[in-house]
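This section describes the prediction task in plain terms. A model, or a person checking by hand, is given the sequence of a single protein chain and must write out its three-dimensional structure as a string of tokens. No templates, partner chains or ligands are provided. The sample shown here is typical of the held-out split.
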Amino acid sequence: MNTQKGIAYYRNSPVGDLIIESEGESITRIGFRKEGYGTESITPVIDQCLAELNEYFTKGRKFFRSILAFAELNFKPGFGRNCCIYPMAQPFRTKNLLFV
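The expected answer:
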């Protein structure tokens, strides 16, 4: 069982700087960076997620292969579907970012 943890930043996206965290073979967090940058530890799953996000923001990618395993759900009524990164899925909101 792979329990390697990772962290990386997606800088200068159209929605702001993002922080991405992983554990094992899953992405466990994608959110807005609120403070300074820490040391990055890029795992293969984060590398894949960064590439997919880059394709989404620059080339119009519509589907993602990264495995998501979020631990926290925090719904916020009225948060618009037009702010979503992951289309074609059931809507849910993590601590900092909405996914649908």
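For orientation: Residues 28 and 70 are 5 Å apart (CA to CA).
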